[in-house]
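Suppose a colleague, Dr. K., hands you the sequence of a protein chain of 554 amino acids and asks what its three-dimensional shape might be. Before reaching for any lab equipment, you can write down a predicted structure in token form. Begin with the sequence itself:
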Amino acid sequence: MIDPTLKPAPTQRIVRRMKRPSHVAPVAKPASAPQQEGYTHPPGGGVPLQEETAQGEHTARKAAQTKGVPPNSRTFGERKEQAQNYRASPEKIPASSSEDPLTTAAQATTGYQPRDWQLTVHSSMSQHRFCCCVVHRRGGKIVLAVNTLIAAAMALPNGRFAYSAPTIKQAKSISWPIFREYTLGIPGIDFRPAENKIVFPNGAEVMLFSADLHDSIRGHGLDGAVLDEVASFPAEAWPTSIRPTLSDKNGWALFVGTVRGQGDEFHRAYLRGLGDDPEWCSHMFLPHQTGALSQSEIESAKGSMSENQFAREYGCDFSASTEETLIPAFLVMEAMHRDTWEGQLQGAPKIIGVDVARFGDDKTVFARRWGKKLLPTKSLTKADTMQTVGHLCRMIREFRPDAVIVDDGGIGGAVTDRMTQLGYDVIAVNFAHKAIEPERYANRRVEMWDKLKLWLIEGGDLPEEPILPSDLSAPQIEFDAQNRMKLERKEKIKARLGRSPDYGDAFALTFAADVYPRRAVDEHLPLYLQPDHHKEEDWDFTPGVFHDHREYGY
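The predicted structure, expressed as tokens, is then:
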């Protein structure tokens, strides 16, 4: 009689693998190319998890040769089959094997081949602790985020990482399939849906969290975190719950998402990355930069959405939800991707606009416009008026402008006075003064900004500077009792952006007057501005230091 208290002896599963005869050709596996967030999976191999550099490629090549497979030659279907066979076969890594399973796992490849824009983000994250990445809908941001976490987890044994979305359901439904796809070749990886976590062979963990329940992340010490669709996060989620978890390990954070307007946490993170904080960086990518969508698909989406909806979802326009915005961000982005060559600018006037600040948080900004092209801007932080004069004198010598226009309000008057004393022909403009067309505009400031908008519409060319879209799209229009257009006060803009739109104001100053190009030699110019009067080496204006021009005989 069988004793019911006895348990049956454990059985061992035996897997027999038949060898393929040498004369039989292998069956070719069809390559599959799953689509994830607009990203087309490459048919070849991938980038090693540890790093996306030549050293990582060497690691992948070595691992592939160990398996007897040429590097970068396996299709996605073959990688999937190999991963399944790897887990099903108990003799794949026997207990007595001298090969370290963790080393094998670290050499596995995910098949991730980042696009150029994704490589740009990876490069920035190696230099900055916090990175905000604004990407159009279906651009591939989740693929970027997931592979960032996979690489970080494989590189740090026992590391702790987090993927946070507005809800836990959203976090699972969006990220879980992509995590599974890109970890097929990692032996021993453990998905734990009940615990909302993924455990890697080296002990590292990626945990899924809900921003709606952000208190649940408290108490965790994180080495890194991805925040997806941050615009939908509660305002207190990042500063009070997520950010403190990164403190004890000096952890990093990647913000990704599409825009929903101004003033939310995503917008604030993007603006902070455009500032001077060395820990932060920001990027914005439109459809023509990611290459994830065809032009026909973009046009189809545009036809099925309102102008504001399309501007937000595909144009990455933070101001699209505000009808009162004077300059939509899509106008700025279009202008940033025009290419005007120098031959088209010959005969066009050159103008310098200077928005003056002194010491405080604001910047002194120099904008140089040559006809239909704005050249890269220059700025000074916490510079006194004499330093500003020194930089402006040097810029005049190098750029040879037809007009120099300076903000004469406040401390800007000291700059115009000194420049006039030195003999420079400077146009002083006060933003609050009466407009040239007083029946349409409440003051000079809104008049200049409206002309700037017309310049963009008519084909203006902007440099690709990340701060320009937010600066130029910040001011909103209002109307006074006489139905004249005016801009909201700079104090309101500064409260919303966290800074003053100094770059936009300097650029707008170049539209304060109608300027025509001078003749090659103008008898009205002071002697020191005549062509070839001084050699370049005579003009030694060291940055940040004002040189007395009297030593040059003015």
